[in-house]
Amino acid sequence: MKKILYVASKVKLHINLFHTPFFKKLKEDGYEVHVCASNDYANKDECVIPWCDVFHEVLFNRIPFHPDNIRAYLKLKKIIDTGGYDIIHCHTPIGGALARLAARGARKKGCKVIYTAHGFHFFKGAPLLNWMLYYTAERFLSWMTDLIITINEEDYTRAQRFRGPVIVKMNGVGIDVSEFSEQADCDCDCAGILEEIGIPKNGIVLVFAGEMSYRKHQDFLLKVLLGIEPIKDVYLILAGEGSYAEKYRKKAIGLGVDDRVFFLGFRKDIDSLMCASDMYVSASRQEELPVNIMEAMASGLPIVCFDIRGNSDLVENGRGGYLVPPDDCDEFSKRILELIGNAGKRDEMADFNRARILYYSRDRIVNEMMDLYKKVLG
User: How many other C-beta atoms lie within 10 A of the C-beta of residue 31?
Assistant: First the structure.
């Protein structure tokens, strides 16, 4: 039986969020699946990883030179040296770095090491310190890697500078397209959803789902709403929690748009919210390959977002939505107004996005990953 070890920083916010469909397929293909990660559940007993044979709890710290990471490296090295793994597949910057350092001996014995870069910290517009620290580290670690998987075109191009590993690009971890497309196609009670939120039935609804944070930049969307002030029946739904939530609520009040912005907090019915909306908007400053935009595309929504890494891999400008220069409020407002005034264009973009997102379906990505494992094993 072949053995594979997945390494990532956290269970709840990474392993169980993205990788369990891959574990299921690995089990079907005869693999024994092990996981190394931090148990980040508030109630530690809730940490259950479907289709995982062995879970090794390893405490990673996001601060690179924290003492926790020295202990994590030593524990990880012992697990890898005695595990007899055929493949080690590591994720997240800290987990990926420590796993590759710890796997040097195992590689000499034939173990193959794969790293998925879910978004390099060095990117167009990133601080110089990021380039000095993370680019240097990734270039060094690439010599200890057999395969690097990137999930957007910018990272794929950057990784070509590395010498040693094979570099490939995949369409992320995929999404369950049917979950959102079926909701959009069904007779969803959109009027009921909007009435519950407090939005008039004939209003134009913009939606964004994501953490309330500096990175997600929801305050820009508030300014955009102010910029389309002449049209009073435009409403903005913001779903998500985060440390900036209260700050953004106060910002909405200060701008005088609080009667048209709905802060819903954490929601489990994102598919229903998208079904009830007219377009998806995102002002995120940094992305890798945003799952929320994939979900919006599967829901048949046109997209208006910043022209940044990840977004530009998904949204075809003019066909699936509009890519706007970052922080250009006038252009962002202009594109929204164009779509408000052209229902036919919205429908065309909806159809285009539904077709395009099929290339990002989870089943397709899982099968592609299984093929990569076979190629890596030779």
Answer: 21
Are residues 164 and 185 located together in one domain of the fold? no
In angstroms, the CA 194 to CA 197 distance is: 5
Measuring CA to CA, which residue among 143, 139, 147, 102 is closest to residue 120? Answer: 139
Note whether 349 and 322 are within 8 A (CB). Answer: no
In this predicted structure, the answer to whether residue 72 has a pLDDT above a threshold of 90 is yes
**167 and 51 co-located in one domain:** yes
pLDDT, tens digit (0-9, with 9 covering 90-100), for 191-250: 788 889 999 888 899 999 999 999 999 999 999 999 887 677 999 999 999 999 999 999
Same domain for 167 and 191:
no
Q: What is the pLDDT of residue 192?
A: 83
DSSP per-residue codes, 317-352: BTTTEEEE-TT-HHHHHHHHHHHHT-HHHHHHHHHH
**Cβ-Cβ contacts under 8 Å for 37 (sequence gap 6 or more):** 6, 7, 8, 9, 10, 11, 14, 15, 55, 57, 58, 60, 95
pLDDT at 230: 67
Q: Judge if 274 and 301 occupy the same domain.
A: yes
- Number of domains composing the chain: 2
State how far the Cα of 89 lies from the Cα of 137, in Å rounded to an integer.
18
Does one domain contain both 8 and 74? yes
Same domain? 25 vs 115: yes
Three-state DSSP class for 47?
coil
Q: Give the model's pLDDT for residue 287.
A: 95
Q: Is the pLDDT of residue 326 over 60?
A: yes
> What CATH number is given to the structural domain containing 19?
3.40.50.2000
Are 307 and 318 in the same domain? yes
Q: Give the pLDDT band (50/70/90) at residue 187.
A: low
Residues 207 and 354 placed together within one structural domain of the fold: yes
Domain that holds residue 112: 2-174+361-377
What's at 208, amino acid-wise? F
Which pLDDT does position 338 carry in this prediction?
95
Tell me the H-state helices in 67-209: 67-83, 93-102, 104-108, 128-130, 136-141, 153-159, 177-185, 190-197
What pLDDT score does 180 carry?
Answer: 84
Decide: residue 304, CB within 10 A, 0-12 exposed, 13-18 middle, 19+ buried.
Answer: buried
